[in-house]
Amino acid sequence: MAEINSVTTLETDGDVAVITLNSPPVNALSANVRDGLYEGFKAAIASDAKAIVLICEGRTFIAGADITEFGGAQRGASLFDVQNMMENSPKPVVAAIHGTALGGGLEVALCAHYRVAVPSARLGLPEVNLGLLPGAGGTQRLPRIAGVEKALEMMTSGRHAPAKEALEMGLVDEIVPEGQLKEGAVAFARKAVAENKPLVKVRENNAKLEAANGHPEIFADFRKANARRFRGFLAPEYNIRCVEAAVNAPTFEEGLATERKLFAELISGPQSAAQRYYFFAERQAQKIPDVPDDTPTRPIKKVGVLGAGTMGGGISMNFANVGIPVTIVEVKQEALERGLSTMRKNYERSRGARPEETEKRMGLISGSLDMNAFADCDLVIEAVFERMDIKKDVFQKLDAICKPGAILATNTSGLNIDEIASVTRRPQDVIGLHFFSPANVMKLLEIVRADKTAKDVIATSMKLAKQIGKVAVLVGVCPGFVGNRILAQRQREAQKLVLEGAMPWDVDRVLYDFGFPMGPFAMSDLAGLDIGWVKEKSNGATIRDVLCEMDRRGQKTRAGYYDYDENRTAKPSPVTEKIINDFIVKSGRNPRKISDEEILDRCIYPMINEGAKILEEGKAIRSSDIDVVWVNGYGWPVYRGGPMYYGDQFGPDKVLARMQEFQSKMGEDFKPAALLERLVAEGKKFSDFKQQQRQPEPA
Ligand code: CAA
Ligand code: NAI
Fold first, then answer.
1. Bridge-partner residues for 408, per DSSP?
2. Strand pairing category for 161-162 and 562-564
3. Tell me: the pLDDT tens digits for 45-103?
4. Domains in the chain, ordered, with CATH?
5. Which of 67, 403, 516, 684 could link 679 by a cystine bridge, Cβ 3.0 to 4.6 Å?
6. Distance, CA 280 to ligand 2 centroid (Å)?
């Protein structure tokens, strides 16, 4: 075996040369990897071998360009040099794929003449999720193999196609058994030589493009069908334009030129910078300074859920989905049955649901009215009414019933978990697992560390979150934790703006245009204005009270802040407008014209300021964790990175100045956080802020 460089080797297996890449963790195409591939192929082509196999060691085939090198000066061989060397090889080149062939990795594989994969392999062009497009010929080659429609779908979703589907679309030529990738790829290469198979260059296959030629409606229809999903993002549109170029440009090279030009635009723009930042933010959130990766975890083989309401049902589904049995306990038979039947309906309604899958999952969920059913659970998650007295009562019971070492979690949206833990004899086993509604769909999980929560309980929760497909962020105990605490700032300002003269639809429009999926008032209408509203106590003290008193309770009554037609399309409501105007007059205020800029700044800046307070109080480990919470749980547009990233881009000094300006006009709601002032004085950013390490727990 010859060592080509520190990450690449070349060996021969009979008459087949095997180039092996080993650059952990994911064989990303760093300068060193590109050099190794370039020199490896050069040597293999010059050797006596009759065919060449490219294979990777470790968990995956090449997972893409090395994102950490973006923005730096080009070093080493270019990816195009590597690709040209492969494609023009006079000997068949076979890419052997396991794990994921993503982005630049798939683009390398597409320059092999053939591809073989194991059944568990997945292939995709996920650049769109980094605000990019495949910049190494992928936009020109994928449609040539998979056809225009499939390429558009894959490139704009970033989806990873499983090997079987890849085989069907021609992206993979053969599937070989798991664990036999190298043997299978070498055998394939040998067969290619023996049968004198052609040296297929994807770039020369135009048949599928010709089928789309003269059909611009394919693109128009695709844009229209996905307009909502793509709103605000640049990258999906640029990906589409590249596929259009593949179809319309007279030559492959000209299509490639369009790809290069659009790639250059994206990579130097603010959206991709934010999306790349976010990619690493999500991974960073998994790292907890005083809970290292090798912290032992507790086995979670059976989960209990207390309360089968809105949250309990959704929470249970997460575990059944990954094969973990769930026992769900309610107070009343009727509530239990309602909860179970909602879960069943959710399964039946989910896309591509198969009856046997529904049965399998429902078969893992058992109901009971007796909390003793939790005795053998490894984790119990409480999701009963949001009242401290009830929470304390059930935690005392759980403490008595659950086995030693079982984790007791609460799904409270903001109650004091230290107080809840204090009623148990095992506060070290108590933690917050704050799911978001609908809990079976929403990705975010705030894991709330109470004062005495043990490290292995945190490690277990982080691991479990990954297992059920959630993005977990560790936060500390404070009212509303990170997400809802910041939300409260925005809600307060939205309400105040309406009392000063802005209409709910003005506020909603500004936030929608900023990139949120909907504004706070449309959101209230969707959730129902009567959540937490008590008819008997209502006395017209707020606009919401007045609306509810008129039975304008939101979408469900076809009227709330907005009026709704039979398709639930919202229209600004003259009734609401009159209520608001009357309310303002009655309270002796003078409505004024409020600019869109003021609406945005009043809603956004206090959020950033609250994020700073959260950081200084140690309730989030780092500013990027706050961004992960807001992107995943509250629809902050990922192409703006998150509130703290946004603040950093704008400049903490400007955030401070605007807060001070508002403070002088409107009072203490805008009092700048001490940390914000300190960072500005030191010329630092939120991302520069490092949390003090926690003190070690007493033995
Ligand atoms: N570049 C640099 N580092 C990368 C990377 C990449 N492309 N992909 C993953 N990593 C790093 C992660 O940051 C992480 O590092 P830490 O352990 O230090 O946190 C480590 O590799 C492992 O990653 P994950 O935790 O995500 O591991 P996983 O097993 O859950 O997932 C994966 C593996 C599916 C490959 C996932 O990492 C992933 O989706 N990576 C990004 C793939 C991608 O977007 N590729 C396209 C790149 S852009 C491109 O290729 C442009 C072009 O056309 C030339
Ligand atoms: P819900 O009212 O829909 O369900 C609560 C369920 O708990 C009811 O079915 C009730 O019968 C049951 N229950 C009450 N006391 C019980 C007891 N002692 N033993 C067993 N079951 C009991 O409430 P929801 O919305 O599911 O909220 C539950 C918890 O989740 C609350 O703490 C809430 O703050 C939190 N939460 C709610 C979110 C939401 O959007 N609804 C989001 C995140 C957290």
1. 380, 430
2. unpaired
3. 999 999 999 999 999 999 999 998 887 888 889 999 999 999 999 999 999 999 999 99
4. 2-267 (3.90.226.10), 303-478 (3.40.50.720), 482-500+594-699 (1.10.1040.50), 518-586 (1.10.1040.10)
5. 684
6. 34
